[in-house]
Write a structure and sequence with these properties.
10 strands, globular, alpha+beta, 239 residues
Length: 239
Amino acid sequence: MTELTREGFRVVSDILTKTDLSGMRDAITETIDRVARALRTSFDTSHPDAPFEERLDRIARHDRAYALALFHAVMADAQRDPRIARVADAPRLASILKDAVAPATVTGHVVRTRAVVPSLSSHRSPWHQDVLERTSDGRGCGSVRVACWMPLGDVDERSGALEVIPGAWEPLPHRNDDGHFSIPDESLPSGRRSVVTLCRGDVLLLDRFVPHRSTAATPPRARWAVVAWVKAATHAPQH
C-alpha cells in the first residue's frame, strides 16, 4: 500500500523550479493589475508596489469590496494564463502524477488558483473532500483521482498550510451553502489531524476523499497556491 493510499496524502519535495513559481506569481500579479486598471477606482488604490503576499490584504483593510473584486478575478481567470495552465504538464510533475494515479491513466486536469487572505478570512476553505461521491462511470467529478496542491511560498500552521485527517476515507456527507461545500461538524471524522508543512517548490498530493481544510494565514501575508485536480481512467485492455 502506498503512502498516498494509506495516509491520503503525500509530500513530494523540490519539484517546482524557481521559474515555475515566479511565472505563476507573475501571472497572478498581472491578472490583478489588468482588472485594477479596468475598474474606475484609481490604480494606485490596488497597492501595485506592495509585496506579492501582502497586496490583497492591504487593499482589503481599506476597501473590502474592491479587494473582493480583485480576488474573484484571480480565482476566475488567472488559470487561463499559460504559466499556470500548463504547470501540471511540466515533465517532473507530470511523471509524479502519472505514478500517483497508476494503474489508471491520466486523462486531464483542472487547474485553479487558491488563496487565504487574512482580511478576507471568510474565504478560507472549510473541512471538505474534493469528490463527494464514488461513481463507476469515470465521468465528471468521479474521474478526479488526486489533487496536486502547490503553494507559491513556504507554508506552515501560521501561513495557510493545509490541515488533513489522514487515512483512507469514503465520501462523507457535505453541506451545500450556495455552492460552497463543507463537512458538517457532526459528520467530521474524529481521527488525528495533521498540518502539512511545505517549502516552496514542494507539492502536496491529496487523495480525492481525504478530508482537508485551509489553516489561517497571519496578517498581512496571504497564502497563494495553485491546485491541479487530476483526472484519470482505467481503460480496458486492447485485444
